[in-house]
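The pair is listed for reference:
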Amino acid sequence: ENAKIRGPISLRTRGRAVTTEDFEHLALEAAPELARAHAVAAGDGAEPGSVRVLVVPSVTADAGRLRFEQLLPLDETLARVAGRLDECRVVGTRVLVEPPAYRGITIVARLRARPRVNPTRLQDEAMRAIYGYFHPITGGPEGTGWPFGRPVQVGEVYAVLQGLRGTELVEDVRLFGADPVTGQRGQVTQRLDLEPHALVFSYEHQLLVEGA
């Protein structure tokens, strides 16, 4: 399946990186262990004359939960991608390959289960839904990874939880920024803005489910 996708790409780029899309495709070609690559051109967050290529490794998640260190690519991967892109870049263009910035979030919510719905089971489903939706690789509205720079809003949390079949009512939702390394929380907020080329990272969400 990857060959079907990348074959036409290779023919189009002919091994040269000109557009940001070319850099992204060539990065993924050089390192199949990557899940995502996002190129940032000069004037859009990169220094003049340079292209930043932000790479995210493929990971195995436990019910959508990740450890922060899983999202940091290996030095060998970074070097291999950088070497490949250096071969393909236009003369005079500097290429930087690095992981994106991650903005941690912690969601604290309280739900009421429908009659005859097991609260424990609903809590498990709600946790999977939240970790799955606010996921840097497989989350977001399209299920293809949280969009770079997309803000996190409390309304989306309500929508995810209320959309579960066992949910009678979402009683309360609180959203916090969280340091993805230390877990230290910021102030409660209705909207958490991300830097233009940052991704979201779910950290220790807390859900309480009450029976009907």
User: Anything to note?
Assistant: The first helix runs from residue 2 to 13. DSSP finds five helices and ten strands in the chain. The two ends are 47 Å apart (CA to CA). The CA atoms of residues 146 and 169 lie 26 Å apart.
